[in-house]
Specification:
The chain is of the alpha+beta class. It is 18% helix and 47% strand. The protein contains three helices and 13 strands, in the order ααβββββββββββββα.
Length: 170
């Protein structure tokens, strides 16, 4: 009987999606699946909340001694990030950019061609994936990181902000 239980548990682990395995491997975070719109919320130690579109390709790259994530990678779709001010360093890596947080609420949207970063509240430093061309974003500002094009900080139009945030039910 015990062997059957072990085999059933192993089968369940094999059947889990990569996102579920990532969440389990990332100590200090709990996962909640939500609908309308479909998304996954990771509540992490140290005041970090990551809200990912359901299909987002997300990975936890590093964490501190208290199991607080310090570096997350997203390679597709969008992620809404909330970081408590003063909670320590945190950054998002994409194929096109690095967004380093200083306590804020911001969103990162990744496609094959670009990474778009929008700051709802606070301050975020954004650079190319190699660290070049850094810019600072504050409340209401965004930047599109496209290979071969300059990083231009702009106040995003209300429609663009609504369109992005609606993907998280906001």
């Amino acid at each position: 009987m015990r062997n059957c239980v072990i085999i059933a548990m192993l089968s369940l682990l094999v059947a889990l999606s990569p996102q579920t395995l990532v969440a389990q491997d990332s100590a200090g975070c709990t996962r909640d699946d939500l609908g309308d719109p479909p998304r996954i919320i990771y509540q992490c130690s140290g005041g970090i909340v990551l809200e990912a579109e359901a299909a987002a390709a997300l990975g936890f790259l590093a964490r501190d001694a208290n199991d607080r994530p310090t570096e997350v990678e997203i390679s597709s779709d969008a992620l809404l990030i909330e970081v408590a001010p003063g909670s320590g360093p945190f950054q998002i890596r994409t194929p096109h950019a690095i967004a380093a947080v200083r306590g804020t609420v911001f969103a990162v949207d990744v496609t094959g061609a670009s990474t778009d970063v929008f700051v709802q509240e606070g301050e975020v430093a954004v650079s190319r994936a190699d660290g070049a061309d850094p810019v600072i974003l504050t409340d209401g500002l965004g930047v599109d990181v496209v290979p071969g094009q300059p990083l231009i900080v702009r106040r995003w139009p209300d429609e663009r902000v609504r369109s992005l945030l609606s993907r998280f039910g906001r």
